[in-house]
Specification:
Number of strands: 19
Number of domains: 3
Number of helices: 14
CATH topology of the largest domain: Rossmann fold
Distance between the termini: 47 Å
Strand order of the largest sheet: 1-10-11-13-12-14-15-18-19
Oligomer: single chain
CATH class of the largest domain: Alpha Beta
CATH architecture of the largest domain: 3-Layer(aba) Sandwich
CATH superfamily of the largest domain: Alpha/Beta hydrolase fold, catalytic domain
Radius of gyration: 22 Å
Largest sheet: 9 strands, mixed
Structural class: alpha/beta
Length: 444
């Protein structure tokens, strides 16, 4: 990762909300400046556990502390780094720290163990030549969550697109040039069309305080989106608000719309089917793309069904389900599961989501709706989107050719699956949404 060139057209505005709790501004996330990887096979002779240092950023806190590429971190503040995800464990520990915090690192170099403290720098601020980035915070039950509000050149108020991210607990702040992928290109495309944009970091992500995102439930996450949407009403340069729900964000979008006054709702790559149905269909869809045998798909369908019955119907934890039947071990390992989590999120998140009838929640909204499906989208089904559009007489349905789940350009679903939805940006998402929003705004 590298710092963004500061020769930008617009500066970053640091403003602090009256809605924020506590004294002073929300502290910046600490930044060590290391890219971690799993230990390469060639290095396994000196350490079987730990986080491998693949790169140290010049001028970073890690460089100042003397760390080098090839070092292996084996403990942070006395907490051992072990298991197949030790690199992610190290990143999570560091991400929880704030600028100015010091962490004690135990590491291996050339087979010798050493210890070295490192004091973290503040992570760089996001900048863009397309818009001004305003940093602020909102209060969610006494916990501050970071909001990022961008405004295009000119005088407001501007129509606003509130981007609601998907399931992932990854940050929606992009301070480094190489991290400016399709989402940033989407937001910058909206800016070029004269729209402001809003994002909110989930609990415990980036600068946001609170319980780590992986451990919060569905209702808690919803409160963050509602608070951010309400914050917009305090901003004089914020005009009519459109929600854009991406993936799981499309489930939150109709719920946010019910409590907040918005002009319209857009969803892309979302789900409307019952949770069990979605997981089964998605598993089959991806297995077919990978040319799995019918026997394998039948076995997987049985595992998915049995697991979801335990998790959702009998309120068993993933750990309890695995304890009953070791056959679930490989099934859970590839789905980022542990004792209480499944697909990176806490079991209560899934149980609360399972209790929601998504289509019924959509019926409670009153705004015009744009339903978007990319023809190369693997995780989301065409049928879910068609059904949503057919359910709402105020919905417009659009299919976007050559688009995968991450706004990526793809030749086929298999192509998008192979590139993990991280290919080149498909600008049709900007053209389609801007055209629709302008049409909505032109109507009384």
């Amino acid at each position: 990762m590298s710092h963004r060139n500061h020769c930008c057209v617009f500066v970053v505005a640091l403003l602090w909300s009256a809605l924020a709790t506590g004294a002073g501004p929300l502290p910046r996330q600490g930044f060590l400046g290391i890219e971690f990887r799993s230990i390469p096979a060639a290095e396994r002779d000196q350490a079987k556990d730990g986080a491998y240092v693949a790169r140290v950023l010049d001028g970073s806190a890690a460089a100042a502390a003397g760390f080098q590429a090839g070092d292996i971190f084996v403990a942070l503040d006395g907490r051992p780094l072990s298991g197949p995800h030790a690199d992610r464990q190290a990143a999570d520990i560091i991400h929880a720290l704030r600028a100015g915090d010091t962490i004690e690192v135990t590491y291996l170099r050339a087979g010798k163990t050493a210890q070295q403290p490192a004091t973290l720098n503040p992570i760089a601020l996001e900048t863009s030549p397309a818009h001004t980035v305003r940093y602020d915070a909102v209060d969610v039950d006494g916990v501050r969550q970071r909001v990022l509000f961008t405004t295009p050149p000119g005088d407001g108020p501007f129509p606003v697109v509130f981007y609601i991210q998907g399931l992932s607990c990854s940050s929606v702040e992009f301070p480094f040039a190489e991290n400016k992928g399709p989402i940033v290109q989407f937001l910058e495309g909206l800016s070029a069309a004269g729209f402001a944009t809003l994002r909110v970091e989930k609990s415990g992500v980036g600068d946001s305080e609170g319980t780590p995102c992986a451990d919060i439930d569905f209702a808690t996450e919803l409160k963050g989106y509602e608070a951010a949407c309400a914050w917009l009403r305090t901003q004089p340069d914020a005009g009519p608000v459109f929600l854009f729900g991406h993936s799981m964000g499309g489930v939150f979008a109709p719920l946010v719309a019910q409590s907040q006054g918005v002009r319209g709702i857009m969803v892309f790559g979302t789900i409307t089917a019952p949770l069990k149905t979605y997981f089964l269909e998605n598993d089959v869809r991806q297995s077919k793309l990978r040319k799995a045998t019918s026997e394998y798909m039948t076995q997987q369908a049985k595992l998915v069904t049995r697991f979801l019955e335990g998790l959702l119907d009998r309120n068993e934890s993933p750990g309890q389900i695995l304890a009953k039947d070791a056959a679930f071990k490989p099934f859970l390992e590839i789905r980022d599961a542990d004792e209480t989590h499944f697909h990176e999120r806490h079991m209560e998140f899934w149980r609360q989501l399972n209790a929601i009838n998504v289509l019924e929640e959509w019926k409670k909204t009153e705004q015009p709706v744009l339903v978007l499906w990319g023809q190369c989208d693997v995780p989301a089904s065409q049928s879910d989107h068609v059904k949503l559009a057919e359910t709402l007489d105020r919905a417009t349905y659009v299919e976007i050719p050559h688009m995968g789940h991450g706004f990526d350009q793809a030749d086929s679903m298999l192509d998008s699956l192979r590139q993990r939805s991280q290919g080149e940006f498909n600008p049709a998402i900007v053209e389609t949404t801007v055209t629709w929003m302008k049409d909505v705004l032109a109507k009384p």
